[in-house]
Design goal:
Blueprint lengths: L21 H7 L5 E8 L10 E7 L5 E2 L4 E3 L13 E2 L19
Antiparallel strand pairs: 1-2, 2-4, 3-5
């Protein structure tokens, strides 16, 4: 897993950044506008385990992309503040070959 950290190096840890205000962070890395359910397993086999729902964040427009998905144990979508989107220009297409590591075929 990867994490993107944006830090204002001109301030110390005890001061709030003047450059990275919440409004600028929201403009630079906005929250998604919605979540789309892409997979679920609500009915458990032999009543084992918990339900699982996988959600894809929907970026606010084509300038931004969402990296990854969000998993929940509820049919309710996650809060919009659960993830942020990043500018498409910060991303490059992966050259790695996709490999299926799991399916729910049984």
């Amino acid at each position: 897993a990867y994490t993107l950290e944006i830090t204002d190096t001109s301030t110390s840890t005890i001061f709030v950044s003047k450059e990275l205000s919440p409004a600028k962070i929201n403009w630079l890395c906005p929250y998604p506008v919605n979540f789309k359910l892409v997979w679920s397993q609500a009915q458990q086999q032999r009543n084992e385990g918990s339900p699982l729902f996988i959600w894809r964040p929907v970026p606010p427009n084509s300038v931004y992309v969402a990296l990854g998905m969000v998993a929940t144990a509820s049919a309710d979508p996650p809060p919009l503040t659960a993830v942020r989107c990043v500018p498409r220009g910060w991303c490059v297409s992966s050259r790695a070959m996709f490999k299926c590591i799991w399916d729910d075929a049984g």
